[in-house]
Amino acid sequence: MQMGKITTLFLLLLIQPFLQKTELQELNLKNQTFSAKVVRIMDGDTMEVLYQKTPIKIRLAHIDCPEKRRSQPFGNNAKQALSDLCFGQYVIIYRQKYDRYRRLIAVVKNQKKQILNQEMIRQGMAWHYKKYSTDAGYAQLEITARKNKAGLWRDANPIAPWDWRKPKPKLHV
């Protein structure tokens, strides 16, 4: 009997940080806009911020960047570009919603008042993610970046991240 109580207590202590993180996200992020410090860059369109001592993953709205973890060309460049724009800074986050991976989808502005989502497209480090965004401004930024051969648009045949993520057919010999 005593062992069961100890096991239950241990499990509660183990999962408590996860419960607190979810509660904090839901309670404190009811405001549409907030400020937080960028503490980690995962790739060109995903970062982690620290808000009230709680890490929150942010997925940049309107854009999709080359896949770093799947070795897509320009994946590392996109991660470095986002890092150069905001790592270690306090940024303003314009909350939209959560995605299925529990990342906060947002538009983010850095200390230079640059909108990171737009700047990544302007630098040629991202595509306008038309599947999830109908914003004509992002479409125009991509057209201009392509025309100027900025970043990944210098590549003869850039492959969109959503196509890069599709399973590759297996060759049978």
TrEMBL record:
Presence of the UniProt keyword Hydrolase in the record: yes
Keywords on record: Endonuclease, Hydrolase, Nuclease
Domain of life: Bacteria
Record GO terms (molecular function): endonuclease activity; hydrolase activity; nucleic acid binding
Residue span(s) of domain TNase-like: 32-155
The keyword Nuclease appears for this protein: yes
SMART domains from the UniProt entry: SNc
Gene3D superfamilies given in the database record: 2.40.50.90
Name assigned to this protein: Thermonuclease family protein
Organism: Pedobacter petrophilus
